[in-house]
Amino acid sequence: MNIQRWTLVVVCAATAMLMLDIAVVNTALSRIAEDLDTGLSGLQWVVDAYTLALASVVLTAGALADRLGRRRLFTYGLAIFTAASVACGLSQDIVMLNASRAVQGIGAAIMFAVSLALLAHAFPGARERAGALAAYGAAIGASFAVGPLVGGLLTSGLDWQWIFLVNVPIGLLCLWITRSYVEESRDPNARGIDWPGQVTLTAGLFLLVLALLRGNEDGWGSTLIVAELAGAAAALIAFVAVELRVRNPMLPLRLFRNGSFTGAQVAAFAISASFFAMFLYVTLYLQQILGLSAIEA
Question: What is the pTM of this model?
């Protein structure tokens, strides 16, 4: 295969792997709870530690890749993701698993941020780029579709650790392909890193998710939860203020003037807040209340 095809293969494989890790854990959660002796709050972080890290870091990772080299950052992301997958599979308690999932999310963010830039560099023509992006989109969609099934198969056939350990040979293969066949590229007009935006966004998202996860347990009117929600609001307002004033914002707010862009964000939020939020509770109900196995669920 030529460089273009190798680039498409490794980008689709790596992206499918990181997307799969959002959905694949859901059918293994009941087994994780049993093995690591944890409750709902611990299980929620198995999902949220990964997605929170991914969401918080992805924009800054893209800016870093433009400056330092996209293949280099993609390699770093693959290495972090693969090493964190090993740590997840070897976890002996829920704290180690959740910490490893957060690190895994950082690696996933780097890969996700760089993947489209690698494809754009490898496929400069409009027609061939459209075909590459179609394959990329299909890989993402297929990953979400088969994720729960893969998680059920691995959990029922082997054990929950294998939903993470299966990433290791795939990650190592992707690393070899990336180092051997993917071309390095940079943006000659790379923008600066918006560190104030990164700090305020990460703090705001973390405090918001923390409050939402702990609200039922601690009480929505408790001092701790109210403080966390207030801190989240303050940090997110500060993020908007930073983005309006900084020279190189990580999220240019003028994009929201575009109806297509705003509509896509609203649709993505609606799907995430309904369909994906339901996964966690449905799989626990099917396995812990109805007594189904992971593959049956």
Answer: 0.83
